[in-house]
Every structure is written in structure tokens, then in C-alpha cells.
Design brief:
By secondary structure, the chain is mainly α. It has helices at residues 5-19, 43-70, 76-105, 109-132, 140-199, 201-211. Helices cover 79% and strands 0% of the residues. Residues 19-33 have low confidence and may be disordered.
Length: 212
């Protein structure tokens, strides 16, 4: 499952404007990987994602059980808020982990930027709400699993930020090098033609006479 073209372009523009002064030009096209290509994937981020995948079902099960136990003791608006927060966290987490895996392993800037945005703008505020609100009747098991989840989330945001910074700069360098190579090709071709004419002046004059 690939991201839509407009989404990829928007995330690439966001990451480019965040980490470098100019855009990379990477909007879904094939990346340039020369023989000496340096691996840019973040090992700490990949390890965090690996363990987070196994921890997430346990978090869902624990939070679901705790929510069912205290549901009847909560006011109506808190019942709605907690159910909504749980559903958003559960649904967004699957997409977040997928984008993190694809973006980190395949060194794709738009996917990794989407992972970072989901983590920072959706998951982190909702989790802090579940941890800090005093009226949701936090149970000991609920508090424990939320603190562990918050540790995963904070570490992943930090690791993804630095990984995205490195990838964006590398893509920008490759983009500018490709522009430089493309700009030099017409000069090289024209230079080779002029050298050929200088090496065979008699042949060039004969061709001009035949043409006339």
C-alpha cells in the first residue's frame, strides 16, 4: 500500500522545509542509489519499532479491560472521550508503525515524515491526556502500560527526527549532484563533437562540398 501522490509530495515538502533550505525534488520518483550508497536507516528506530509491534497488542488488551471495568463509573462525556481516544490510538497506531517500517527500512522521506507527524500530533497528545487527566479514574495497570507506551513513543519521535534529518540532507545532496551532472552533459557532448571536427578537417570539408 503506497501513499497517494499528493500526500507524498506534501510530506516531502514539509520535511524539506524543516531540515534544509531547499526542496529535494523527491515526490515518489525512484531514488538514485550509486554503488557506494550509504545506508541511512536508523538501527535504534528499527529496534524500537520492532519491540513496539509486540507491545501494542498487550497495550490494547490492557486498556480495553481497564476501560470496561471503569466505564460505568465515568460521566457520559468522559465515557465518550475515553472510547474515542482509545479507538483513535488503536487505529492510528497500525498506520503509524507501518509508515515507520517502510520509511526507515526503504529510506523513504514521505513515509518517515508521516510517521513522525502521526506520533507527535495524534498519539502523543492523546496518550498525555490519558496519563494526566485526574477525572478518568486511572487504574494501576493502566498507568503502567501508558508509561511504557509513552517511553516507546518519545524514543521513536527522537530517533525518527534524526533519521529524517539525515535522509533529507542525503536526498538533497543527490538531487543537486544529479542536476550538476545533467547540466554538464550538453557541454561534454558539444566538446566531443568539436574535438572530432578538429581531428578530421579534411573529412569535414569534403562533407561540406558534397552537401553543397
Amino acid at each position: 500500500m503506497a501513499l497517494p501522490h499528493n500526500v507524498r509530495r506534501g510530506l516531502t515538502t514539509f520535511s524539506g522545509s524543516l531540515f534544509i533550505d531547499n526542496k529535494t525534488g523527491d515526490c515518489g520518483a525512484a531514488q538514485i542509489c550509486p554503488p557506494g550508497h550509504e545506508v541511512l536507516s536508523s538501527l535504534p528506530l528499527q529496534m524500537l519499532l520492532f519491540f513496539n509491534v509486540f507491545y501494542f497488542p498487550f497495550w490494547c488488551l490492557s486498556e480495553g479491560i481497564m476501560l470496561a471495568l471503569k466505564y460505568g463509573l465515568l460521566p457520559c462525556y468522559y465515557q465518550f472521550l475515553l472510547v474515542t481516544a482509545f479507538l483513535i490510538l488503536a487505529l492510528a497506531e497500525g498506520l503509524r508503525l507501518y509508515l515507520g517500517y517502510i520509511g526507515n527500512l526503504q529510506e523513504k522521506v514521505p513515509e518517515l515524515a508521516g510517521f513522525l507527524l502521526l506520533s507527535f500530533l495524534i498519539q502523543l497528545p492523546l496518550l498525555l491526556f490519558l496519563l494526566t487527566d485526574e477525572h478518568i479514574i486511572r487504574l494501576p495497570l493502566e498507568t503502567a502500560v501508558h508509561i511504557i507506551y509513552l517511553g516507546f513513543l518519545s524514543s521513536e519521535i527522537t530517533a525518527a527526527f534524526f533519521a529524517l534529518k539525515v535522509m533529507t540532507r542525503q536526498l538533497a545532496t543527490q538531487f543537486y549532484l544529479k542536476q550538476f551532472e545533467d547540466a554538464g552533459r550538453p557541454w561534454q557532448s558539444g566538446h566531443s563533437v568539436s574535438q572530432g571536427r578538429a581531428a578530421h578537417p579534411g573529412r569535414n570539408r569534403q562533407q561540406e562540398r558534397e552537401g553543397s
